[in-house]
Every structure is written in structure tokens, then in C-alpha cells.
Automatic annotation (TrEMBL):
Record bears the keyword Transferase: yes
UniProt EC number: 2.8.1.7
Top-tier EC class: transferase
Name assigned to this protein: Cysteine desulfurase
Listed cofactors: pyridoxal 5'-phosphate
Taxonomic superkingdom: Bacteria
Pfam families per the UniProt record, alphabetical: Aminotran_5
Gene Ontology BP annotations: cysteine metabolic process
InterPro entries: Aminotrans_V_dom, Aminotrans_V_PyrdxlP_BS, Cys_dSase_SufS, Cysteine_dSase, PyrdxlP-dep_Trfase, PyrdxlP-dep_Trfase_major, PyrdxlP-dep_Trfase_small
Phylogenetic lineage: Bacteria, Pseudomonadati, Bacteroidota, Bacteroidia, Marinilabiliales
Keyword Transferase (UniProt): yes
Amino acid sequence: MSLDFRKIRKDFPILDQQVHGKPLVYLDNAATTQKPQVVLDKVEEFYLKTNANIHRGAHFMANETTEAFEEARETVRQYINAGERSEIIFTHGTTESVNLVAFSFGEAFVSEGDEIVVSELEHHANIVPWQLLCERKKATLKVLPFDENGVLKIDELDGLLSERTRLVAMNHVSNTLGTINPVDKIVEIAHKRNIPVLLDGAQGIAHYPPDVQKLDCDFYVFSGHKIYGPTGIGVLYGKRKWLDQMPPFMGGGEMISEVKFSGTTFNELPYKFEPGTPNYIGAVALGTAIDYVQSLGVDNLAVREQELLNLATAKLKSIEGLRIFGEAENKVGVISFEIEGIHSFDLGTLLDQLGVAVRTGRMCTDPIMDHFGVPGMTRASFAFYNTEEEVEALYKALIRIKGMF
Ligand code: PMP
């Protein structure tokens, strides 16, 4: 199917505006994606017509909301092909999902002297929760390095695993270098030793949704806002066999079966891990966002992003003194770079003055900055609604800024 991306772009009203008197060129999609009108409409419609707290009321609106919330769970289940709806836990985002597993899996399965393996390519959200766990349990964090192209040294993974390894936690796609990691190999290597694997899908979910049953990963986590959905909603997929054995992460209403001062019993999955009032409107709108990308065809969107990536890579490479970090063969539409003699913060600020929105700094990946020995980078990240003209605008803006130094 060939799509009319110019027409599709109109689904995103926020893109049609000026900043500093220049047309907005939004190239910060890896930080968060913009929302199509259908998602915005869903949020408004829900607050206007249906809003009521879920699971609590005997009344019509409470039932409607509960049903919509559970339908959204089913949409997520289908999108990643989880075996059961109860294996889909709604959280507030990737960060909370990783923390939930680090705490709860950690309580059940990690003890002194055990090991957790992450990679050098991780976002802080997939490092710090494991460091906290290791500190709490006197366990050790081990790190799989990446090479100069930003590709994980997968051949070294098996050597890092031991009898004491309790979990491998790695990202599906790097937010800084765009590298698509060989998640099937990671799972295969770890599973040979019966070690479970958590995949941070924050950057993978919009481009390459996993079939979690086929991939056989034990946990897959992501945020709604990276896939054209709202902020404040996220997902933890976990295999029932683990989730059943893990203690609750947070206590409160709805996650219980019965509360007595002599002792409390907990609710079944997924509610055991969903205390308090969840972000049910966020969940419903995430369901709408997933329906939206599926209606366009996720594969079509990935192809479009590759076109923009290839064009932008060629353009940026033609700029003298510009260095691109991470040139994996398999990468998403993310380009992190520096221009000799220009601090990334200055570059970002000047690009902003020209209407071009990019991210600068360390991108929550200090180890990647340390690897390359740089204080920060500038990152342009593309979504399917970006255009060739916007790539050109980035290129021209960079040439102009270079001329100022
Ligand atoms: N992991 C990766 C790879 C990410 O890109 C991000 C967001 N930048 C996160 C984790 C954290 O996601 P959130 O802030 O939505 O919890």
C-alpha cells in the first residue's frame, strides 16, 4: 500500500505552526511523538461524555469506562501478541515498568552475590533501577559493551552470563544511536541458560512492535507517548509465570483481594500491579493511537522513516566537520551528531531559532557519552510525518550555523 504522507501529516495539528517566526520542523520524535487528531479527540470525548472511575461503580459510566479500559488492554495485547490479557499491566511509562520489575522481580529472585546484565547502550531508565536493586541486594551489575558503530558486542554476551545471572535487561532500540538490537539473539543466548530477559521497548514499540510470544522475551516495557499516544501511560508485558511469583510493587486500592489488619491478600493479574486509580483515559487513548498506526500499517511507517533517515544521513555526511555517532546497519530514524568546534547546546539553541527542534546533551545515556568521550550530542529523530523539505531545512540550518563559527 502506498500512503500519501503529506495528507497523513495533516492528522497532526501541532505540526502546522511557526516558532520564532519560522515554520516548525519537529525532529525530536525519539523524545516524544506528536499526537494525531483521533487521539486528541478520544481524550476530549472521554472527558466530555464517559469519565468515571473504573472498577468501582455500579453505574453506567463506570461500566463504560471499565469496558473501554479493558478494551485498550486487549488492543495492546494484540499489538504485541501477548498470550493473555492479564499479562498486560498498565503503568505510567517505561521508567515505572522497569522499576516495577527491578523491585518486584528483585524481591522474589535476586539475592546477595547474584548478577544482573545490562548493556552499555541503555537509557538511564534501564540502568539506575538495576543499580538500586544491586545495592539493595548486594548483587552485581555487569555490562555488555558496544563497538564503534554503536552495535552491541553480542558475541561477548554468553561470556558475561553465569550461574549467578538472574536477568538480562537490554533495549530493543537505542534512543541515542538508533541501533536496533538483535533481541532474538539476546533472548536465545540468555534462555540457553534459563535466564529471563527484559526488553526496553520505549524506542522499538512504534517502529518494530514485537511478537512477544515468538520472541519469547520475559518482559517487554514501553511508554504510550513514544507511539503517538498520551503521556503518563505505559505498559509492562510480563509472562504470567514470572508475574504470578512476583510480589506487588505498590500497595493500595484495587490491587487487593481482601484487607484485614491481620493480613492482606492480593488481587489476581493484572490488578495486583495496578494499585489506585489508573490513567484509564490515557490507556484508552493509547488504544486509539495503536489503532491509528495499525490503520496506516506499521511496516509502511517504518519504511518511510528509513527513507527520511537515509536522506538525512547522506545530507549530514556531506557537511564538513560533522560527525555522526553510531552507524549501525540496522537503525531507526535517529541521527546523533556533533559539529567540530560547536557545543551541542549552542547548536540546539541556534537550530531552535531557525525553527528546527532537536534534542541536545546526554540523552539520558551517560555511558554512551563516556564511550565516545564527548560531553553531549545533538540528535535529530524522525517520524513518518516528517518530510524531505524538513530534512533540507535541517541541512540548510546546519550550514548556516556552521558559517557563524
Ligand atoms: N528507555 C528508552 C530507550 C527511552 O528512549 C526512554 C525515553 N527517552 C525511556 C526508556 C524512558 O521512557 P519514559 O521517560 O517514557 O519513562
